[in-house]
Design a protein that fits this description.
The chain has 170 residues and is α+β, with helices and mostly antiparallel strands. The protein is built from five helices and three strands, in the order H-H-H-H-E-E-E-H. A hairpin with a 3-residue loop joins strand 2 and strand 3. The chain is elongated and about 55 Å long.
Length: 170
C-alpha cells in the first residue's frame, strides 16, 4: 500500500480546515437564504449545487437587490465576502497540493505544480508547520462565526428573515 509522509498532527489540522470550511460555506448559504422570498427548502435547493464563488456572487447580488449598496451593512458584507474569498484560495492551496516531508519534524512541504499558457510549467514549494495549519483552521471558524453574527444582526434589524421562518421579506 502506498503511504504518505504527513504526520498525524498535520492531518488533524488539514481535516479541521476541511470541516471548518464546510461550516463557512453553510453560513454563506444561510445568509443567502435570509435574503430570499422563499421557504427554507427552496433556499437549500438554490444554494446546494453552487460553487463557493457562485455563493459569494449570489449573496452580494441578493443583498444589493434587497437593500442597495449605500450603507455600512453592505460594506461589512463585502469585507466578510472578501475574507471568505481569501480563505477559499488558501483552503484550495492546502487541499489541492501534494505534501512531502518538511525541513524539520514540525513542518511538511506543500508542493503545487501548474502548467499555464502564460508561464509554462512551474512548481511551488512551501514549508508549512502544524501550527500554521491549526491557526488557519481557527481563522476559518472565526470567520464563519462572524458571518453567523452578521446574519443575526440583519435579522434583528429587519434586513433578513430567519431561515426557519416561511414568511416573506417586505
Amino acid at each position: 500500500m502506498l503511504q504518505h509522509s504527513v504526520p498525524d498532527n498535520h492531518l488533524k489540522s488539514i481535516g479541521d480546515i476541511t470541516v471548518s470550511f464546510a461550516l463557512l460555506e453553510f453560513q454563506l448559504q444561510s445568509l443567502i437564504r435570509s435574503q430570499l422570498n422563499e421557504r427554507q427548502r427552496i433556499g437549500q435547493i438554490i444554494t446546494a449545487e453552487l460553487s463557493f464563488k457562485g455563493l459569494k456572487a449570489l449573496l452580494v447580488s441578493l443583498y444589493i437587490e434587497r437593500h442597495g449598496k449605500d450603507d455600512a451593512d453592505f460594506e461589512k458584507l463585502k469585507t466578510l465576502i472578501n475574507r471568505a474569498g481569501q480563505a477559499e484560495e488558501k483552503r484550495n492551496q492546502i487541499t489541492h497540493s501534494i505534501w512531502g516531508a518538511g525541513k524539520d519534524a514540525d513542518s511538511i512541504t506543500r508542493i503545487k505544480t501548474t502548467a499555464k499558457e502564460k508561464h509554462g510549467i512551474r512548481s511551488q514549494f512551501e514549508d508549512v508547520s502544524s501550527g500554521d495549519l491549526e491557526a488557519f483552521a481557527i481563522e476559518i471558524k472565526e470567520l464563519a462565526h462572524e458571518i453567523q453574527n452578521f446574519l443575526i444582526y440583519l435579522i434583528k434589524n429587519g434586513k433578513a428573515i430567519n431561515s426557519h421562518e416561511t414568511h416573506r421579506l417586505p
